[in-house]
Amino acid sequence: MSRYFLEMAPTMSEAQLKGLDEHKYSASGTSAVEPVMQVFWRWLVEKVPLWVAPNLITLVGLIINVVTSLLLMYYSPTAKEEAPAWVYMSCAVGLFLYQSLDAIDGKQARRTGSSTPLGELFDHGCDSISTVFVGVATCCAMTMGDNPDLMFITFFNAVFVFYCAHWQTYVSGTLKFGYFDVTETQFGVIMLFLMSMVLGHEFWGMQVPLVGLSVRVIAVICSTSLSTWTVWGNFQTILKGGAGKNGSTVAGTSVLSPGFPILFPIVLALMIYKKSSMGLFQNHPCLYLLMFGMSIGKITNKLVIAHMTKSEMTMFDSSMIGPGLLFLDQYFNSFINEYIVLWISLIFVTFDLVQYCCLVCLQICDHLDIYCFNITSKPSKKGLNSGNVSKATRGAENLTVYSRPRTRSLTRANREQDR
Fold this sequence. Notes:
Blueprint: H1 2-8, H2 14-21, E1 27-28, H3 34-45, H4 54-75, H5 85-112, H6 117-141, H7 148-172, E2 175-176, H8 182-199, E3 207-208, E4 213-214, H9 215-239, H10 259-275, H11 280-283, H12 285-309, H13 321-331, H14 338-368, E5 389-391, E6 400-402
Helix pairs in contact: 1-14, 2-12, 3-5, 4-5, 4-6, 5-6, 5-8, 6-7, 6-12, 7-9, 7-10, 7-12, 10-12, 10-13, 12-14, 13-14
């Protein structure tokens, strides 16, 4: 059945699959709290059975993260309502679990000898989706619905920073981590959830006497300042030239080529927000941000694939249809109720993202002769007569992994601090 879908709708070209074979994971830098957390993560991964696939660990973490975030959106659909204390607690726990499980998937891959390019792609793909849901949940926890401009800035700031990190990776060939990076940001959001649980949503509206601003505004100013500093560092790498020929990207394309795919949905989001006759964003902020977030999530995944396969980043994508529908509806004076079009767009972009991710995983699994959520590889298409069998490391004597006759590059470097 899976082969039928792959033949009907292949998502990656043969050239991309060949580039994937040659990909090698490259990262540099260490954040502030990561050395401390590495002790916990190394302890945690030892508690995971050797038969558990790394991708399954990441997926479980993502599901927990998404469910807890959706729970908060259910209780605070306009980002104005105060949710029960246990909901904020569940969001904090859900994000911590996702952080922990996301951090040990690479370690589990090395323990079981099952590192593949799919692992890196799956990891970053889940991160892009998590960023969307955590971004919306953060706005709800701080009850930003009363200040839609602040909510808009907070959410799109989060997804843009994540995109820029992979943009500079596409240019330089190396994923660079700063002193204040994703781990620190996640801990900051966890603290935010806990503060909402303990202090209530009124805390974020309190005025700070010396500056005359609310706690909410000060928090956004601080986070935006840190994000601006991070993005500035990314653009310094981007503008100074890439790893490709004549300072181009790893694919030999312009270093600015990934700019349009991310700016297109953000500009549309701003235009639709400001021109909506019924206050679409103000009245339905969670649905609005999720719709644009799913669109940007797919674009980010395509950027990650472009980097790993050293291929060109396409300018347009089917995920842009969702935002485009809202724009066209406004252009024709809301011929169809904007709320209905928003739901149609959200369903479309979500289906488009899920379908794309599933097809990419199926195609890579078929190409590498592996399973996505099972440690044991598929038997080689050329048979198992070659006897090329390797045992998983660290005492997994009963677990064998059959590989294809030709050698494949491992996606994750064998270094102490893996992501």
